Every structure is written in structure tokens, then in C-alpha cells.
Amino acid sequence: MSVELDVFVGNTTIMDKEVYQLWLNGYTVNDAVKVRIEGGVMEECEASAEVLLSDTMDQYRTFQMCERLLHHPAKLANQLLFQIPPDRQAMLIERYYAFDDSFVREVLGKKLSKGTKKDLDDVSIKTGIMLKSCRRQFDNFKRVFKVVEELKGPLVENIRQHFLLPDPLARDYAAIVFFANNRFETGKKKLQYLTFQDFAFCAGQLINNWTVGAVDNMMEDMDVDLDKEFLQDLKDLKILITDKDLLDQHKSLVCTALRGKTNVFNEMEANFKNLSRGLVNIAAKLINAKDVRDFFIDLVEKFIEPCRSDKLTSIDVNLYLTHYTNSAHILDTFKHHTVWTRYMGVIKSCILRMYHD
Amino acid sequence: MPGKLKAKIVAGRHLPVMDRASDLTDAFVEVKFGNTTFKTDVYPKSLNPQWNSEWFKFEVDDEDLQDEPLQITVLDHDTYSANDAIGKVYIDIDPLLCSEAATVISGWLPIYDTIHGIRGEINVLVKVDLFNDLNRFRQSSCGVKFFCTTSIPRCYRAIMVHGFVEELVVNEDPEYQWIDRIRTPRASNEARQRLIFLMSGELQRKIGLKVLEMGGNAVVGYLQCFDLEGESGLVVRAIGTACTLEKISTFPATATHPSNSSPSKDMKDSPQAAPSTLGCRSTHSSPVHSASSRLSQGFSVSVPTLLFAGMGSGGSAGKDAGPLKALLKQQTQSALEQREYPFFTLTVFPPGFLLHVGGVVSARSVKLLDRIHNPDEPETRDAWWEEIRQEIKSHAKSLGCHAVVGYSESTSICEEVCILSASGTAAILSSRFMQDGPLDTELRFEEVVSPGCGFCHIPYDELNIPFPAQLTYCYCCRRYKVPDVLFTTIDLPTEASVTGKGCLIQARLCRTKKKAQGEVNAMAISNLLPFLEYELHTQLMNKLKLRGMNALFGLRIQISVGETMLLGLASATGVYLTALPSPGGIQIVGKTPSDITYEQHISNMQKKINDTITKNKELYEINPPEVVEEIIGSPIPEPRQRSRLFRSHSESSDDVSEIDLSHGKKDAFVLEIDDTDAVEDIHALLTDSPTPAGFYSCNTEIMPGIQNWTSAIQMFTSVRVFRLNANLTNQGLNKIFSDLCENLLKSLYFKLRSMVPCCLCHLNFTVAIPEDELIQVAVTAVALSFDKVQTLENGKQSGEKTPIKAITENDEQLQFNLELNAETSSSSISPKGLSEVGSHPSARAPSVDYSSFADRCSSWIEQLKLKAHTIRRGSVKTTSSMEKASPLPEGRSRSLRSNRSYSGSSVAVVKMTPLSFIPGAKIIKYLGIINMFFIRETSSLREEGGVSGFLHTFIAEVFAMVRAHVAALGGNAVVSYSMKECVFMENPNKNQAQCLINVSGDAVIFVRESELELTSVQPQSATTQTSNGGEGT
Prior knowledge:
The complex is a heterodimer. Helix content of chain A is 70%, strand content 3%. Chain A is an all-alpha fold. The longest helix of chain A is centred in the N-terminal third of the chain and has 22 residues, at 49-70. The radius of gyration of chain A is 26 Å and the shape is elongated. In chain B, a hairpin with a 2-residue loop joins strand 2 and strand 3. The longest helix of chain B is centred in the N-terminal third of the chain and has 30 residues, at 185-214. The radius of gyration of chain B is 29 Å and the shape is globular. Classes of the chains: A mainly alpha, B alpha+beta. At the A-B interface, strand 1, helix 4, helix 5 and helix 6 of A face strand 27, helix 13, strand 32 and helix 19 of B. Chain B: Residues 253-292, 825-849, 875-899 are annotated as: Disordered. Chain B: Keywords: Calcium, Cell membrane, Cell projection, Cytoplasm, Cytoplasmic vesicle, Lipid-binding, Membrane, Metal-binding, Protein transport, Transport. Chain B: One of its GO terms (biological process) is insulin receptor signaling pathway.
């Protein structure tokens, strides 16, 4: 004796948010039923486990049928198969594209390839996120990446329009796409303390300031690649460390400005040349794709770690970077003001964001 | 050439990829009507082709216009091999043939393929130019309107109700043995779909012709069914009620007519000419019946049917009804006798039409199918139905009734055996809609007699009762006799006074039978049927009593036949009719009183039953005013005799005389536990779990006692198939079947928990035995939310007070609600209802002629006072026609909100409901009937998610196609929607499955009442039961 077939179809598609989340999280039907029973829905509605199982199966089926539509969210609005109120549609899309920070942290900056996908079971074990859910999140990244990769115009806007995502989520996806495209290294041990939101913030800075789209909206180019011309120009900044006079002059300007304003003045003064060399070298090397990948690790090794060992607070760092940036403009022989501003603006905000434990 | 059909193919979207190499499609479209085909150009390499074709014009007879669907086939062009079909769209152009329906079909329609399901959409434009045809002998019936709705459609007025129309067409089934054959399945199933479209068209045209012959212009309650007889062919048959309808032109004018507002209003609307319909009767009791067996061509057994109402000695008017009534009755009778079958498929009637209800009549017969030799002469099938209808007619007569209302027909087929069933409610109708000329005054006179109880009064002679029953004086008017229990197949009349709320009551039964062939099999089945019916009936009766109710509406008994078993499912909505006596309890009597433990057991059970009854009364708010007992009729028999009646039915007709004598006392509804069966029965009785808090359910259109519906509606279909083990006993089977239904209901409640408080309306169960050891149950229903605050108030009103409805002769149709506040509750009631009245400056209380009203009710009140000491005084609540203009109540603002939230979607929202109305909205136009038939098949069942995945997708697709076609007609809802066929077959070993679904309904345009507000001031169908109930809906 068994139920051979059991379906429920509403004219307006009925979807339970809680079950949807369980489905997204990769629970099997039976596990989902257990979770629901523990959640107390049975007592609430005088239902039995049987009823719960039937309902869960039914919902899972509905979600599976919807899934292919969710891959192209724009289709959800003008498909005829399911009558879903717009607010529900938005909920479905938003939750489907939502991801776990701990998961994204594992794949951020990796190539969204089959190889990476194969390693997802390790990621799943490491993060405790079910493999099914990992796959969905990974596929979402890949899908978004593929669609916007070839599109012109602002990245965030493209993502928002094609995937009907709310603004914050679209920004996060922009960061993921940007990282994947430039293959930034984020997995090194020294970078482990950084959260996804730290990186997303930095990505936003880079997208807004260092890509082609950042300078000229009219440019028929993409937001996903760094501005090659700019990277080329960055090499000119090397003069700040190669020219001995300039370096000394810069140091004295900064030190004058800083004197008396901080407790760690001596450390700053002692370390000035070291830090400045670090930052300018990062700039000069960015023209090489390989060094772009190491951008964050370089920031940490060449700047953040030395500062931290000198026990600088983030207020100190802020102070230091502000004067460091501004003083360069006063140098007589330094001509690359625009590039310097464009470079240091991003570096400063990235470092400040990354300067925590 | 009286018609020109024009079609234009605009564009396609979401097409499937047909060319794997390019991931694109080179699509073009073939447009076919009759034998003419046009093609569009190929639109290369696109999944969203823009054809923008010219207008394809077909010049055709209007006969063809009615019969044929427009066939649109989307294909993928292939230079080297045959073009691949992507899918098809069938467009029924019937709605365009009627001037009052749709004028154009335009929109995105799903492209459907029997194997792949929906594959993208196509945008088309279809128009028809009709030329006048004056040929008297024409074969077409263009312009006759069809409605699935079983009441007078809401923007029409009935001028005449002509009566019963029926027709059937037969053909060979191009594909019935789908699973074992080697073939291209798509081709044959497509042929099948096309054939059925054609046959329905033809059937509709023929019915239309009959309607024109009768002088009508519309068919209401149109019910079309398919009999898939397998080898012997395919029968498409339809019945309906021919009417002459008149469109109500403007809103303000229409508003005076009750039938065009939602029923919550109707209910409050006093029937303008509420006739008091006298007498009515029906029930259960005896297993009476006429058995006859005729052998025509082939084998047939006419099953001894159980006549729920029993058999009468011919109809004669109640003596106390007076000469006037007799005269009236005669008049109608003569009008009806001219008809071959005085049957009506309506379940809701225009005010003043239904006078008396006599009880349920039903007839069944078992036939052996043989091949239909000549499709053009379907005489055999016609003759079969004729027999059944004659039987029904004679049953009605024996109940003293001249008409049958709420009539329907159905079949159940298993291999070569076919059970034909027909059932309805014997009734006496007013001549008002059956003769020309205006309504005469007698009716007005009668109306004064009994507003809400008239239809319950017995129609037959009390001295010559056709079957055992106790009669009492009507508890409403105290002037006419009423039976103790009333069973009907119709909806609860809107004017009926009901105490408390109603609920769904189901009797479920399984009976095993031996496998057999041919006549032996047919004989075995026909021998089992009466037992089945009797037991279903007993179950219904017990469950009704258990809920403390005394009447059933919308009774539908379905008997399904399989190779090794018979299934019976009876569903109805139980209510407590104020006019009928309060039902007695259930008393259990043991067989061996000497045994002490046994006694103990019995008394335990008795206690359980009593507790349940008390609980139920509370749950359904059944607190009728107590009235002096006045049992009329025969003396109380000794219990022994009474119980005999219930256990001895099987001893057949010999007992009849004895049964006739046994007029039981109403309190003594005795169940004797003389065998295990009875114990089972009682257990079954108590295992029905109550509906969870916040839920109500019924299988009728409306739920008495709830009116403040919100706009939240959710139609759904649920299907379950259960596999049984071999070798089960009857009891085992019963339990399984009963649990199956109960669990299904529980699942529904759980699914819909977010809509609480809500009521599942029009719960329509269909059972089938798709193959040995499988039981299939399909349910279609709609969940309606309502406002809780008012319900409570309502409940109090109906529970603790007695609503009395009355009408003044005043044109404005003022209504008063006399509330007798019981002392115990007076503190909690007052606020809302009464203050509401006060807040309307226009309330016409001062001008109310209270005295005449009071006169009418005074005797009543006297009685009430006598019984209920707590009743203090009556407060009169009046509402005037201006109430509508009052500020928006809560419910309405909610409906506005939800409206808005939907509007953002790019796909038009189409509501679907099995009801004939949409709460809180007014239907302003009927666009035509939707009658669609689809077949879906798969040979990759596992890949599509197994049987559940397959069927889930298919049902969703059917919904989508119905919505798309309605939207293309310009509509925003389907009312009276039903899934009439859902035949599912599987062969898991071959990874195959197939399903046929037939759905129908009426496409309509509705507007929210809140939106109408400004354009018309509707005379308020004054609220009697709730203060602002109607518009919240």
C-alpha cells in the first residue's frame, strides 16, 4: 500500500518560504521534513508527518520546475506556466541568487571552470555547506559571469537588469565577476582574515576607479577589465622611489605633517621608505597580469603587515596615507598627479578597509 | 458562405531550440481551418520570431465555424529532411460567433505538443465576420450562448427557462491502446485531440439547434462529458438547460436584479417575488425501488435504484396548501408535461422559480459496451440514456414532483462494462419562467407566507406519505409541514434560513467483487449497486446526525467500477435548516445486553458519539432556538422496529410493507450493533477528523454563515493515486479509501494554512479505478479567505440569535434583521453590527413600517419567548440602499491592495474558480465557454520526475493554457471551472505514461466592486446577516 502519485497544483503557485530555503540549502526531502517537524509547524497546523512529507515533496517539485526559469530571471515574469505574484517572483529570485559568504570566500578569484567545480566537495566539507547548495551558488556565479562578461556598460547595472537582483546583491555579484575575471588571489593564508565583504568593497573601488568604464562612460568597453592605459601609466610613479631626492623630499614633507599628531611617529618615520617602496612597487608591477593577481597579498605583505607590527591603529594608517598622498603633489619634480590620485585613492580606501584583525 | 474567418500570426517567443548545431530555430507557421491551409514565411535563426503575417482569410459555412477549431501548427523548417513540428494551438472560435461574447482573440497562446508539453508561445489575432443567414433550415446555431454556470449568469436575466436539452455524438477512438502499440504516439494522440475538438464543436452546434427550436437563445448549466469506451468508441455527450436570457444593459439598472451581484449579496437580496415554495421533502429512509431489466441490443441491466426520497403515490398537493396552490401547481405541471423530460441542470434558481424540493432521485444502469457500428446513428447510447431519464422522471412523479432540478449524468467504464448514472432533485417549480407573460399576483401572495423556509415544506400529501418519515410543522412559519431530514443535489437556496455553518460530509465505500466477464460481470455489478447505495446513504445519514445537522445540499454520489472492486463516494454539504426539526442523537443498541463488558463498551461508544455531537454543534455554531415539540404523524414505534429498518435492508422487497409502517421517533436514531459491520461503521463515523481551526469546507457554491469574503482566492487541483495490496477485505479497503480521502483533505488544509480563516468551497472529489489495485482521487476546489472579526460576530448572530428575514413590499427591498439577543451574549455582540447602522446617515430606520413586519413575526416571537427565557428583546437592524456609498470597509481596502500588487506582472493575471462568481467583484461580461481537451504522453517518465512530476507539469500546463486563452479573449477570470476528466495511465516498466484532461468553464471579465463604486450606486442588497459583509469579499 503506497501513495503512487501525489500532486497539488494551485492556480496561483503556492510556495512556502521556509521550504524554499531548505531546498536552496540542499536538504533532501526527508531531511527537510525533519527540520520542519522540529520547527513545530505540525502543532501549529494540526498536521501529521505524512502531510508534511507530501507538502514538502510537492514544493520541491515546484521549485525544481521553476529552477530553469530562475536561471533566466527575466523569463519568470513573462512565462505562462506558473502564476506567481510579482513580490513572490522577486523573493524567489533574490533567494535563489543569495550565497553564503563562507562559500564565496573559498572560490573568490578562482577561475569559474569545471576544475573548480570538481573541487566543490572539498569546499562543502570545509564550509559545512551542502554540496548541492555549493553547486547552485557556483553555477550562479558562472552564469552571471558568462552573461555579463561580453556586455558593455556598467557592470552592476548589467547584472541588475539581466538577473533582476536587488542593488546590494547585484554589487556583490559584480565583485565576484570582477575577481573571477582578474583572478585575484584571495586564498593565501595571510588573506584568510579578510571577509568577502572586505573584498567586495575593494572590488567596488577598483571597478569604479581603475576600469575603462570608470573614466569614460561613453567608452564602448567593459567594466570587468582594468584600464590598460592606466596600468601603463602607473609605471611612471616609480620615480617616487628611484629618485633619491624625491624620496627624501617626500619623506620630510610627510614627517613634517605628521609630527606631533600621532604616538607612533617614530615608527612611521623609520618605516617611511620601506612603505613607500612597497606601494609604488605594487603600482609599477600592475601591468603584469600575474602581479595583478597578487594585488591583495602584496598590499598585506608590503604595507599592512609592517604597519601592524609597528602597532599602528587604523586612525594612524589613515593619517599616514592621507599625508603620504597629498605630500606627493607638492613635490616639484613629480608630474603624474592624475595617475597618483587615481592610484592612491583606491589604495587608501582598500587598505583602510583591510586594516583590521 | 456566411462567414469569413481571419487570422494573423504576429510573433513567437521562447521557442525551443530545434537545431542543435546553431542553438536556434527556423520557425514558420501553418494555419489550418477545415481543409484550407496557409503558411507564413520561415523566420530564420531565431527563438523569438516576428512573422507579422498578412491576414489569412477563410471563407466558410457557419456550420464549419461551429464545428471546427482553428489549428495553428508551428514548425521548424528543414531544407533536407521533413519539417519538424514544434507544437500546435487549437483555437475554439465559438466565442467569436456570438455578438455578446468576445469580438477578437488576441494574445500569447502556449504552443503545445503532446510529448513535450508547452514549447514557447505564439501571438495571434483572430476575427470573424458573420453574414446574416436567413435560411430557416440552416444547420448552424451561431449566436446561441453557452454557459457552464449552473445558475442564471450574473449579467443576464432569465426571461424563460425552456428546459432540458441533450445530445450525443459518437466516433471511433483513433487511439485507445496506447501503451502496447508500436507507433508514433504523437500522431495518434494529436488525431485524438483534434477529433475531440471537432466532436465537441459538433455537439455544441447540435445542442444549439435544439435550443433555437425551443425558442431559446442560451444554454445554462452546460455539461459536456466524454466516455472513452475503448474498443467500442468514443462518446461525447452533453446536457444543459435551454433558456431565453436577456442581457442587463446598464449597471444601475441591473443592480435591482439580484442575480448579478455576488451571492453573498444574493443571499441578502430578498427574492423579489420569493414564492414561498411550499413543501419539500426528501430523505433517505427506505430502500425502495423499481427494478426492471430490458434487453435491447446487447446486454443491459437496469439497476434497482435506491430512491432517497422513497416512492410516493403520485403527486398531489398538500391539503393545507389551499386551492390556490393547487391551481398554481396544475398550471406549472401542464407546462412541464409538454416536455419530454422536465429536467433542469441548474442548481441555483432565479428567485421565485423553485417552489418545493422533494428529495434526491437517482437511477443507474449497467450496460455492456459493444462497438458502435454506425457513428451517424448513435441510437444505442441514446436509448440507454432515455431509459435512465424515464426512470428519473417516474421517481420524481412518485414524490409528488413534476420536475427534476440539479440534474446531472455520469458514467463509469471498466473494460466492456459501463455504469450509467443520473441523479437530481425532485422539485416543484413555478410556472413563472416557463410561460409567456408577466408574473401573476398569486406568487406575491405566497411570498408573504414564507421567505426562508418555503422550499422545505413537503410537496406531497401528508396523509399519503410515500415513505416513512416524521413530519412536523415548519419551525419557521409554523404553518406547513416539513420532513425531518432533507437531501438535495442543488445548491443551498440563497433565501434559505440556516442556523450556524455548514460542512462537507462524505460517505466513502469500497466493495470487492470477483473478476468476471461479460454478462456475469454486469449482473454481479448490478447486484452490488443497491447495497453500495444503501450503505453510502446510511453513512451520510449517520455523519449528518453526528454533526447535528438536518439537511444535505449538493449531494453527488459517484460510483466507480474496476475489475475487482466498486468504489462509492458521496459528497454533500450538511447544514442545519432552521425550518427543519433538530435532529436527534444517535443511540447505540447492543445485541447481547446481558454481557457486562459489552455493555461497558457500548456505553463508552455512546459517550464518544454524544461528545462528538456536542463538539460539532459548538464548532458549527448550531444553536437553534428551542421550540415546542410537535410531532405530527404516526405514533412512536418501539426502538426495536426502528433499528430493524437500518439493518435489514438487504432482505429486499419483502420488507417493504414493514418499513412503511416504521415511522420512527426522531430522537431514536438507533444503530444496532448486531454485526461487525456496524462496529466498523461506528468506528468510521468517529474517525473523520474535524477540520483544523480556521477552516471550513463545503461542496456547494457558498457557505452559509460566512459572507465577508476577501478577494484572496486560490483555486487548485490535487490528484492522488494509491496502490492497494492484493487480498484486502471490504473493511480493510474501506478504511484505506476513507483514510485516503481524509489525508487528502488534511493536506489541503495544511497547504492553504496561510489563507486562514478560509473556506474551501465547491470541493469536488472524483474517484476512479485506473487499473486493478489503484485508486485515483482528484479534487478541484477553491479556497476563499474571509474576515475573521466579522465571522465571529456572524457566528454569534446566527448561533445565538435567530435571524429572521422578511421583506417589505417596498420597492427598495429593505430588509430587516430581527436580532434576538440572548442575555448571555448581549454584552459581546453589540459593537460592530449596530454601530454600523448608526453611522449611516441615510439609514432609513425612521420610515420603516415595523408594525407589519412585526405582525408577520409575532407568532414566532411568541414561541421563541416561550422557549428561550433568556431572550430579552428584539433589536431591529435596518440598512438602506445607500449603504453602499459608505466608507470602504476593511475588506475592500485589502482587495484594492492585492489588486495593485498584481498589476506589475507582465503576464495578465487570470483568476480561476469553480464557483459561478468572484467574491467582491462583479462579472460584467461573459466571453464564451472554454472547453479544452489535452493529452500528454511521455516515454521518459523517470527523467520527467516520475508520475508525480509528469502530472504536476501537465496540470500546470493545462492551467496555463486555460489562462492564456481566457486572456486572449480579453477576459480576466474563468468561473464555473471544472476538470471533468483526468484519465491517467502509466507503464513504469516501459518508462511511459499518458494523461488526458478535459476542463471547462466560462471566460468572463470582472471588475472589483470597489472600482465600480463610482460609476453606479447600487441599491444595497441590504445586509441581513452582516453589517458590511458583501463588499469585503
